[in-house]
Amino acid sequence: MAWDTEGTKRKIKEAATAEFAQYGPDGTTVEHIAKKAGVNKERVYNYFGGKRKLFATILRDELATVAQAVPATSFATEDIGDYAGRVYDYHCERPELIRLLRWEALVFDNEVPDEDLRRTFYHDKTAAVLEGQKAGVVTKDIDAAQLMMFILSIAGWWSTVPQVARMLCGPLSEEEHARRRAAIVQAARRLATPGASEQDIR
Predict the structure, then answer these.
(1) 128 within 8 A of 74, measured Cβ to Cβ
(2) What is the pTM of this model?
(3) What's the burial of 12, exposed, middle or buried (CB within 10 Å: 0-12/13-18/19+)?
C-alpha cells in the first residue's frame, strides 16, 4: 500500500501549527509534534528537516494563506477601511498567525527565517498603499510602509493581546465584535484620508 506522503505532510503541518502557536518553537519538540500528528518523528525530519526549518515552513505557509485570503491590490480602487476589517476578521478566525509572529519575535533577535522572501508579502501591501497615494485617495502625509504598519496594527492588535482588549472593551460578544470591527474600519479610513486633521483622527 502506497504511503500517503501529502496526507502525512498535512498532518504534520497541522500538528506543528497548533504546537508552535501554543508553545513557540522552543517550547515543543519534534517528538511532541510527531505524536500529535500520529506519525514517526523520523518522517518530520525527512520531510521538513529540523524544528526551526519546520517552524519557518509553517509561518511561511500561514503568511501565504493570509495574503491570498485578504489580498491588497490597490487602495486606489479598494477601500482601506474594508481591508482593515477583513484583516481583523481573519485574525479572529485564525489567531495562529498572530501567535506564531509573536513567538518569532521572542525567539529570533535579528533576521528571521525566509526574511527576504517574506518581505515581498509586505512590499505588495505597501505597493497597494502607494497606488492609493498616487490616485490622491490615500494620505501622503504618512509614509506608505508606515501607514500599512499602522493599518495592520489597528486590525491585528486585538488578537495579539486579547486580554487587554477584554479589560478595555469587555468580553467578545457578537455585539462587541461588531463594535470593534466598525471602529477598526472607521479608524483605518480616517487615518488614510488625505488632509485628515488631528481632530478628525481622534
Answers:
(1) yes
(2) 0.89
(3) buried
